[in-house]
Amino acid sequence: KSGEDVTQAFNQGAKEVLKLVEFYDCKKALLKQKSPSCGSGKIYDGNFKRVIIKGNGVLTDLLLENGVQVYGEEELQNLL
Fold this sequence. Notes:
single chain, two-stranded antiparallel ribbon
């Protein structure tokens, strides 16, 4: 909300999560839909005005690039 660019923090956080994913040999991830860091397909634009744009969050892209299957919380039933 302050207008501060948090891209570097999002990228660093995604890298830390990837370390854990690799350590625990995770093949699938259940993430928060529409989140600028975790969303898949549609995300909030980051301006806190509830504007949704096409795209993936930073973590989602990183996990997909590393072979992890990503699911949103609305897809939880598909994982059970």
